[in-house]
Write the structure tokens for this entry.
Amino acid sequence: MTRDSLKVFAAFDDPRLPLREVPAYAQRAERLGFHTLLVPEAVHDGFLVALLALEHTRTLRVATSVALAFPRSPTTTAYAAWDLQALSGGRFALGLGSQVKANVTGRFGIEWKPPVARMRDYVGAVRAVWRSWQEGGKLDFTSEHYRLDRMQPFFNPGPIEHPHIPILLGGVNPLMTRLAGEVADGLMTHPTNSNPRFLREVTRPEMEKGRARAGGERAPALIASTFVATGPSAEAVRAERERLRQHLAFLYSTPQYWRTLELYGWPDLGERLHRMSREGRWAEMTALVGDQVLDALVPSGTYDEIAPVLRRWYAPLADAITLRMPDDPACDARFTRLVEELRQAF
């Protein structure tokens, strides 16, 4: 599998960005040439952030990354996505995630159920609602987790010009990855499992299993949520590597993210980081993430150097990658050339 170009997605650097600053943030992403802006759901409602981004841009696509599925009914989610798609003229994608048990039960007060089977039903239910609106047929969806059989004309918004709304699933474990290959339009990986070896040896095979189960006709996209150490100068690249070294130490202290470490033969690293985090030794953890780990997991280079590196790492494996926008707007012109180089065919 070889691709000629990579779509470049922008991820929010700060999920706590005030809502009043979202329009300018989205407009800058559009000017820089990004294909899609991924909007988080942390301290703001993801659909509200998406609305602000779409309303103030003209060509930029926007995807929730990720909207939490289970605290919302499928019908509620269907309404929000339908409205955003109609408003934007077809520039919206619905990214969904399951969240962990403690958040689902303790933060949202929702009963916990095995997430993969529940997400399968959720995606099916959302699409059933959309289909009833677009085609005018009876809403009739019954599964283990959802039963939807009532949609009076008063509550039916009717068809829209761009009824196909891509559904992207956020996934870390193999079962959710396989489900994305089966029922979704794409998979959004986690930064801890977005290195080429993991994508090639674990993610792609699991997605293909799901695709085969669905009959093999669809080809879901793979969006790699990459960590990239780049900047306008070698000094800036070194500083970004150190920032990512610290971030990786934090992330890999969580057992759910250890599969990459196990793949590379570093299981003891995760165990040591986990133990130190439980002891509150956060300042000492960064030193455990050596250059060998960074070199294997984090592509590095200046804005003028990084494009061929990213092509070599990701073009054979991913349909899209994520990049951070420059901290300094003075770098925007160079960064725009980088994005354009990645988007152009070989």
The first helix runs from residue 22 to 31.
